[in-house]
Design a protein that fits this description.
Layout: H1 2-8, H2 11-38, H3 41-46
Length: 49
């Protein structure tokens, strides 16, 4: 029901949902990056973590 509600609200709400989805994607990319750097410690240190 929530997904349907988002589309019936004003465009600002749709933008808010898009930003939230973008933030989730950003976190997934960050997690994937960290997971790949764990296998390569030199890159991990170079990234500044």
């Amino acid at each position: 029901m929530k997904q349907i509600k988002y589309f019936t609200l004003e465009p600002n709400s749709v933008l808010d949902v898009a930003l939230k989805m973008g933030w989730v994607l950003l976190k997934l990319v960050l997690v994937a990056f960290v997971a790949s750097t764990i296998e390569n410690p030199a890159m991990f240190v170079y990234a500044g973590f």
